Amino acid sequence: MKVVFVVDNIEDLNKKVHMLQTHFGNDFVFIVKANLAPLFSTFGYTTSAVYTNNLTKVMHITLMRLNVSNLIVCYSSVNLSNPLLDEFSAKIGDGNKLVNVLPAYNSFEQMCNGAYNVYVKSIFKTHDSMISPKLQYLPELCVKELLDTHLGNRLFEMDPNLSHTIYVQDKPTSKSLKIKTGFNKFSIIPIIVAFVVTALLIMGLAFWGAKYLVILVVVLLYILDIFLAIVFQCKNYFDTRFLK
């Protein structure tokens, strides 16, 4: 069994490596975030690959060079604990089913996830499972299939009979299991559009007054801009979860 350890944080690194070794052995593949690579080298571990914003691709290429086996994917930013790993290990059992970890989402996050999954469904004809990409067990046959397609597919919704899911309620651990999206170049487009529409509204009121047609057109443009912002945010979230 291999442990793909994605180093995206170095806090308590030795402690987390030791906990994983205790539960799953010493066959580690370290994939390190580029800005942490110099510091990571001082810990004495061997770096297998370095990534920037292309984690899934780097992970895929790295695994293609290795012998396929049962696989555990774990990020160093996860708030690991022995009780969590004990439960995770117990769920693996005979190793024939995937083991996923689902963080707790609040009401607002659930609403956003619902809108996001409409976007995913419209493009990929299936839903994002919303499991954490930061801690997962993949059996050998699943790894082979993913390497023949795309490693990011491990996060799509699948037959519940083929997997076990651990539901995490502890707030710090749950928070650490979630993916954070940052501001990107697409996020600024709806802001620019909103400024342009506002400028058009001011000009329209100045030249034609508060006429019904002017107000209607501006309202429709604002609605379109909000829709555009939601689509770009969904794309950003998908790219972060599945690719980066």
Structure write-up:
The protein has 244 residues and is of the alpha/beta class. The protein is 50% helix and 15% strand. It has helices spanning 13-24, 37-40, 55-64, 82-92, 107-124, 140-148, 171-177, 188-208, 212-242; strands at residues 2-7, 28-33, 47-51, 71-75, 98-102, 135-138, 163-167. The protein has a seven-stranded mixed beta sheet with strand order 3-2-1-4-6-5-7. α1 packs parallel to α4, α5 (107-124) packs across α9 and α8 runs antiparallel to α9 (212-242). The longest helix has 31 residues, at 212-242. The model has no long low-confidence stretch (mean pLDDT 92).
Could you tell me the radius of gyration in angstroms?
Answer: 22 Å
Structural class of the secondary structure composition?
alpha/beta
Report the count of strand segments. Answer: 7
Number of H/I helices? 9
* Intertermini distance: 24 Å
> Strand order, biggest sheet?
3-2-1-4-6-5-7
Indicate the mean pLDDT. Answer: 92
How much helical structure, as a percent, in the residues? 40-55%
Approximate strand percentage: 5-15%
User: Quick one: overall form?
Assistant: elongated
What does the largest sheet look like?
7 strands, mixed
Order of helices and strands: EHEHEHEHEHEHEHHH
Defining key terms:
elongated; seven-stranded mixed beta sheet; single chain; 244 residues; alpha/beta; 9 helices; 7 strands
In brief:
The protein is α/β, with parallel strands linked by helices and 244 residues long.
